[in-house]
Amino acid sequence: MKDFAGRIAVITGGGTGMGRELARQLVAEGCNVAMCDVSAAAMTETRKLCEAGGLPQGLRVTTHVADVSDETQMLRFRDEIVEQQATDKIHLLFNNAGIGGGGSLILNTREQWEKTFNICWGGVYLGTRIFLPLLLRADQAHIVNTSSVNGFWASIGPSVPHTAYSAAKFAVKGFTEALIGDLRLNAPHVKCSVVMPGHIGTSIRTNSRRIQTGTDSDELTADEFARIRATLSAAGIDITAMTDADLQKEMDERARMFLEEAPTSAAAAAAIILDGVRAERWRILVGDDAHQLDRLVRDNPDQAYETSFFESLKNDIGWRLS
Ligand SMILES: NC(=O)c1ccc[n+]([C@@H]2O[C@H](COP(=O)([O-])OP(=O)(O)OC[C@H]3O[C@@H](n4cnc5c(N)ncnc54)[C@H](O)[C@@H]3O)[C@@H](O)[C@H]2O)c1
Fold it and tell me: Which of 20, 117, 125, 247 could bridge 46 with an S-S bond, Cβ 3.0-4.6 Å?
């Protein structure tokens, strides 16, 4: 699909980050957008930003509160789109919503682990299944599933367990790659892409924590303090001299750095994703760090989880998330 004008795009997780930027850039190109998120307030802001330059006559930007891991809510989201966008088809589906957390099978609860997995993988699966009939009815359509560099490398660094997110993102990548052949055989007018961003400047750390704990507060809970201490001590990092207030400050600073000091902004990431869709690329790496990591893992698969590999990530590509 070379041109998005007059098309209808569905974006999950449109409230902030890359989802918000995809919405803004698609609307700027004259594409109708229907987005869902768990945060109505965040979507109101996205919608405001989309409308800031004035919407062309007849263009629709609709917002829908829905949790991508809940089938009933996703079915309602689809039904609302059919009604509010007055359509029986969609052209673009961005399965973008995702959260981190649930990193350790040992330290996290099963509930925390499955929350991350069910949003990051279940949301992509449900989104694809539920919207497929609407995609099949379009003359051309494209499914864009957001994985991560954690879809080909199951770590962010030696001191941070990352099992739920990595398992989900590998699933998204495998599913989307398998979908290429299925679509080619059975629905050749529908294409698909897997998106694998490196470090992108968004509020995903803060949003994930809030969704995992079910609060709007940024204050760490007693459980979180205990888990952070256990994680760091397992990694051989001595933080006995740090008070909870020191730890809170450190975590706030990491969230700020993640957002403000990333090598790629959310807007730049969205532009790369949309270019990839126009070029019908099935794999869309986002950011120089993602390209470099892809190459490093391919060159050294046996070393990918060894200290020397983490060191070269830090030194050669400036990886700062470990
Ligand atoms: N930021 C990065 O460095 C990075 C890197 C690789 C992959 N990703 C992936 O990119 C995607 C977008 O992330 P982002 O960085 O823009 O984060 P973000 O937190 O800014 O945006 C994600 C949005 O999804 C929403 N969301 C979360 N759970 C939801 C649910 N159950 N149902 C509906 N909406 C939900 C959040 O409220 C938020 O608005 C995610 O899948 C993420 O895993 C991000």
Answer: 20
Between the CA of 209 and the centroid of ligand 1 the distance, in Å, is: 12
**14 and 43 in contact (C-beta within 8 Å)?**
yes
Q: Are 203 and 192 in contact (CB under 8 A)?
A: no
Question: Are the C-beta atoms of residues 14 and 266 closer than 8 Å to each other?
Answer: no
The pLDDT assigned to 164 comes to 98
Q: Give the residue whose CA is nearest to atom 41 of ligand 1.
A: 98
Residue having the nearest C-alpha atom to atom 8 of ligand 1: 148
pLDDT at position 175? 99
**pTM, two decimal places:** 0.97
- Write down the mean pLDDT value for the chain: 96
Left, alpha or beta for 101 (phi > 0: left; psi -120 to 50: alpha)?
Answer: left
Longest dimension (CA), the chain: 63
Q: Which of 202, 208, 264 to probe ligand 1 with, by most ligand atoms within 8 A of CB?
A: 202
Residue pair 91/116 in contact (Cβ under 8 Å)? The answer is no
Q: Catalogue the E-assigned strands of the chain.
A: 8-12, 32-37, 61-65, 92-95, 141-146, 190-197, 200-201, 264-265, 283-286
Q: Which residues of the chain have pLDDT under 50?
A: none
Q: How far is the CA of 210 from the centre of ligand 1 (A)?
A: 12
Residues with CB under 6 A from ligand 1: 12-13, 15-19, 36-39, 42, 67-69, 96-99, 119-120, 146, 148, 197, 199-200, 202-204, 207, 211, 266
b/e 204-224 (16+ beta carbons within 10 angstroms → b)? bbbbbbbbbbeeeeeebeeeb
What distance, in Å, lies between the first and last C-alpha atoms of the chain?
38
| Ligand 1 pocket test, candidate residues 25, 145, 160, 204, most atoms within 8 A of CB | 204
Q: What pLDDT is stored for residue 264 in this prediction?
A: 98
Per-residue pLDDT, 300: 93
